[in-house]
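As described in the Methods, two query proteins were run sequentially through the folding procedure within a single session, without resetting any intermediate state between them. The first query and its resulting structure tokens are shown here.
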Amino acid sequence: MDNSKDSQDNRIKQLKAFDATKSGVKGLVDAAAGGAVDIPEIFIRPPDELAEDLEVTRTSLRIPAIDLNGVDHKQSSTREKIVEEIKQASERWGFFQVINHGIPMKVLQDMLKGVSEFNDLDVEVKKEYYSRDPERMVKFNTNYDFYMSRAANWRDTLVIDMLNSYHLDPEDLPSVCRDATINYLNHLTKLVDILFELLSEALGLETNHLKQLECEKGRTIACHYYPACPMPEQTLGVSKHTDASFITVLLQNQVGGLEVLHGNQWAQVEPIPCSLVVNIGDLLQIVSNDKFKSVIHRAFGNRSQARTSVGCFYHGVATPPKIYGPIKEIITKESPQMFREFTVRDYMMKFYSRRLDEKSGLNYVRI
């Protein structure tokens, strides 16, 4: 008798049974109706992963917080200081938080409130959006790698996939979060333009270099909801991974739970009110020829509170196919080309065809 095959068959049955409810992790919590929530086996992390966690220490270091106040004054000492801070953070951490970024507090609060209110909808309403169809632009589900992962993550996600189509019809969004989402994305567009300018300057390039590469063109917006979890140490909200993006901009509520691997230690990202978290993705590490780092990160749920976050992933141009590769101006004798050219479409197809926590996709294109 092959016990491992029986175990795998049983796991697939459990995954299918959960998925068939179309009610997500929150559906499990709501079904407990105030009683204790039992975490299903499919969410429990494997023993070897839990053991490995015990070997990695935590650090009290914090990712840099960068004040963007005065960033509009080009050729000023303030802007030069901001560029230098972004350069250092992108090279050493791959992560930073931005404050005074110009997006009003109410816009941020309304966006997070919209995510919570969508997840609080009657399950029959949410079921209309529940889908694993890769062609569907707006969909709700639990974990894109649900059937591939070793352990499912304790989160539900409303996804807005604008990788192949850059036009979003507001009517496709759930009405409960429609206006807040459109308003937030409109504000974010201006900030992301500024961030790509600063990153270009931090690489020693012309201000509009990354903009000319259309790094901000294709977007995926992931509105994550992590219900309160009775055993957050047994299951992850998001498995450790790097992002398949140029940059990711994350809005999160004050619950916390995000951790970044820095010098082989986990650093907690303490939420700063009204801040946004920015991280370098794989694609920017490639085009920067390894100067900027896409680093491993993960997130935990919280024992007593729901965590909400909105990640906007900027992928560049996927359709029609556009060739990207290390920026020629950065390649020198001292820094020879480290990566092959690639298309975003190929990179993303590989990303979505594997488990989230598998080794970085950088291995596909490293020379």
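Immediately afterward, the second query was submitted; its sequence and tokens are:
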Amino acid sequence: MTVYMVRKLGLFVLTLWAAVTLNFLLPRLMPGSPTDAAIAKLAQNGPVSAATRAAIEAQLGVPGGNLWEQYVTYLHQVVTLDFGVSYTFFPQSVGELIWQAFPYTIILLGIVTIVAFILGTLIGVLAAWRRNTWLDALPTLSGTFASTFPYFWTALLLLFFAGYVLHWFPTSGAFGPTASPAFTWDFIVDVAYHAVLPALTILVTSLGGWIIGMRNAMINTLGDDYVTFAEANGLRGRTVAIKYAARNAILPNLTGFGLALGGVVGGSILVEQVFGYPGIGFLLFNAVIGQDYPLMQALFLLITVSVLIANFLVDILYGVLDPRTRR
């Protein structure tokens, strides 16, 4: 197990270095620059002088020197978590903006993703174990129906009926206009109240996939010899279903969960945009619209690192659940 973990850790470090390097190169391979974007807004009033261009570069903190010097500076910024100043929300720093949006995305998408995975997996196990009964037909049909709706369509339906027509929940924001962010019970309740519709959107649209995936994988597992042998030995149905069938059938679902959990940091851009929820996805959308290169670069790096960490943890869990993968 130790050799397996060391090998996976080495692969993680190598992939992380490649992702960080690629994140450094891609913006520099794109046509134009942040300075050109800022000058384009000023050029309407006439040509911009070289002194003005130099002043804009200094104000935006555009890196100087050759590519290697910029790369070394960039690695130092990654290690120290110093990503400079945002162009869109100047003079706020990129780290400050991410720190403000990060908790909302983690609370909303992280908790909902975990709940949807656990609930969908358990329902999928029950549906497969009681296949060809109403306990199988009901969640399978309803899950298939719900998963056909895209995120933004479900969000718009909930926003219209539960927000504008019935006035059950707020239609935008993470908290009320009169609330002041603080770690108090009233503020926590207000945040939870505003997160109901976005959370319900993600839960409804993702739950069906976990149910169907787990059901199909477990039905295939139930036909294996070791499950038949366990049943022939007179073990209880719950023991056979959980410890024998579900333990092996959950591996494909676990892979999907690792990708979904890593993608949590990226946020659901469309859902956060529909509800005006100030998470990472909403921040990334504004960064792209405003050509905010430092903010985009930091967010892309954060998303990439989150996916890599989630997949690394899933690989370790794979080795625990299925010792065959260690070879």
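The chain has 14 helices and no strands. We note this only descriptively and draw no conclusion about the first query from it.
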